[in-house]
Amino acid sequence: MAELEENLYSFADYAEIESYISVAEVEEQKTWAGYVQQMAQEQNIELDFLALNKLYQLLVRESENRFLINASPLKLKEILQDASTFAEKTALSAVDFEGIFQQKLAQYGFLKETNLCRYFKRASLCRNARRNCWTN
């Protein structure tokens, strides 16, 4: 994790920079937990064990693999900052992470629904336009 520059992770979608790490072994889990705690401290955020565990669970949901989770510094900072902002405090709990996760789900659900509506509206307009071309 520490081998790569933090700002390179923004190019991960376009390059072969791996942002997922294995946490299958106890030592890997401890390393990940220390890494997250260090990032939190750099942002003046406190995490207890339950908060760290909830963050792990949320990352597992995202990766759909309990032994492979996202360790991108940008992603982790975003989650930590969002949770702190959402909770309006710097000592975060498991409830705070669950709250931000639920907020993101609602936000993504709304965007997905809006995009689907736009898609179907466009498809309907295209069908109507084709129908009008054939009838004229």
Automatic annotation (TrEMBL):
One of its GO terms (biological process) is proteolysis. It comes from the Bacteria. Keywords: Hydrolase, Protease. Its EC number is 3.4.21.-. GO terms for molecular function: peptidase activity. This is Protease La. The lineage of its organism: Bacteria, Pseudomonadati, Pseudomonadota, Gammaproteobacteria, Pasteurellales.
